[in-house]
Every structure is written in C-alpha cells, then in structure tokens.
Amino acid sequence: MKIFTAEIAILACLVLGTGKGSSILLTEDCGTAKHPSRVRRVVGGKDADRFANPWMVLVLGQFGDFICGGSLITRHFVLTSASCLMSTPKQVVLGEYNRNCTTADCVSSRQVIDVDSRFIHDEFNMTSVDKKYDIGLIRLARKVLITDYVRPICLSVDRRVGHKARYFTATGWGITDLSKLSNILQKVALMKLDRRSCTRRLRIKLDGSQLCIGGLNRDTCSGDSGGPLTVKSHMDGNRKSRTFLVGMVSFGSPSCSGIGVYTNVEHYVDWIVNTIHESNMNSSQAHHLRESTEMNYNFTTN
To answer: Which locations, inside or outside the cell, does it occupy (predicted)?
Structure first.
C-alpha cells in the first residue's frame, strides 16, 4: 500500500501543476545507465550496449510470444503502442538483452512480471490509416526492482525535450536487414524529417501528435512497435546527461525503407500522468474496500 501512496502523492502534484525545481520528471531515478551508450546504428543497426537501455521492455502475448517493445516509465508502468495492447499482452520482460541467452547472468538479470491492466487511448482506432493516438499504458502486477539492468527512462512533464532535437536513437528486437527478428537488442541512429516527407512517401498526413523519423538505409521495422525513440539531455545545469523518452515506434513502410511514423510521446504527457494517477487512485480505493470487507467478515464470524 505504501507503493501506491507515494505515487499518488507525486502524481497529484503533477496534475495540479506544482513541483520542485525548474524541471519536473515523471520519476526522479531515471534515464541513467551503468555504462554510457556506444554509438550504434534495427534495419541497418548493430548490437546495443548490454547496460545502455535498462528501460527497454519486451512485451509478451498469451502464449509467451514476442509482441512488441515498450519503455519502463515508472516502477509500475510501461508505455507502449495502443496497437500492441490490442493483442492483450500477458507479461513483460525487463532487463532483457539477448532473448536466447540462458546463462545464469542472463536469467538473474531478467524480471518477468504479469500485466495487471492495460490502458488504450480512447480515440485510438485500429482500422484508421493514420494510426493517430497510438499510445497505451501497461500497469504491472508488481513494482520492478531497480538494478543495473532495470531502470525507468526519463519523461519530462513540464518541458519538451525533443522539440528542437534533430537526431534520435531507437531500440528494439524487430526485424533486421536479415529479414528476421533479432535475438540481441538492436540500436539505430535516426533523424527528424519534415512531415511532408512522410506524406509523400507514406501518403499519410501527420499532425503534431506524430513525428516523421528516418535514416539512410536505417529504420525500425516489424516487431519494433511500441519501442522508444530517445534523446540525451542535461537537467537544470547538471553536467551528467540523462536519456529521455520523446517518441515511440508506430508504423512505417512495409519494406522498412528508411522512413517511419512515431507517436510524439511529449504530446501525450497529460494523458499519461492523468491515466497513471487515476489508476493508482482506483487501486488504492480497491485495496481499502478489500480491507474493509475482510474486517467486516472477520467481525461477523468471530
């Protein structure tokens, strides 16, 4: 119960528009890794550093099959695409790197947690061509343990970190240039493109809730949906940079030919904060109701 109380207090401040300092983060202990990320280029990409992406999440379906990627944003919540959640995920895996690794080190670093509930944006329409509102949240059945392998990514509540950024990093286990899913987490450097580029190539008109992202012979692909698009930024004059979540893989060309549409996560910060806040409040109320029912039952049977 203490877990929910702490989150409710923090999120209440965010909903009311108050906070300490000049920048507000969804969760404070975020965006840092044991080792700095190596510069890597999912099609056209290379193996990511073992410790560089502790917020990366593998989302599994009803039969333990790999569905998509996601980002750990608090110790209780994973952000992913709405299209991913339509498949009704059952579990998430954190601390994953090599999906085929069965050594003691790999097994001990993983945290496999059941999905408690899922929240899909009310306006998302799976049949819509432009896939707007492609965003959703997974509430975990228990909070994660923070380790060198597992840590939330930073999400700024009060400023748009990615607004002026030109270059980004995407990560995932999706299809590579070898036309098969990768076992080892891949990392690719991409850049922001004019929205008109996506309109011409994909015949989709984007708005401010979406980003047009691409690269020369580099792209995310099938299996990368829901995965993070990130930038590094410094907080309030602090010399040490942190990794921020600014976008999320949504869709692109079937051939993964260097251009794709990403959900602009910073556009949905209010929805994210409010959804988490309401979820925590409902869980708190449900917990108190169970306690009250148990107490009344014990009283009447004694």
So the answer is: Secreted
Q: How far is CA 245 from CA 55, 70, 89, 141, 267, in A?
A: 10, 11, 22, 23, 12
Consecutive H or E run containing 108: helix 104-109
Integer CA distances (angstroms), 1 to 139, 143, 154, 288, 291, in order: 15, 12, 24, 9, 11
> Could you tell me the two tokens for 25?
């983060």
CATH code of the domain made up of 46-282: 2.40.10.10
CA distance 70 to 214: 19
Q: What average pLDDT does this structure show over 76-97? A: 95
Mutual orientation of helices 269-301 and 2-15 as an angle, nearest 10°? 140
User: What is the percent of the chain where pLDDT is above 70?
Assistant: 79
Domain ranges of the chain: 46-282
Which pLDDT value is given to residue 287? 53
* pTM confidence score: 0.84
Residue 281's pLDDT band (boundaries 50, 70, 90)? confident
What type of residue sits at position 66?
Answer: F
Query: CA-CA distance, 1 to 109, in Å (whole number)?
Result: 26
Q: How far is CA 102 from CA 97, 106, 210, 273, in A?
A: 11, 6, 38, 37
pLDDT tens-place string over residues 133-176: 999 999 999 999 999 999 999 999 988 888 889 999 999 998 87
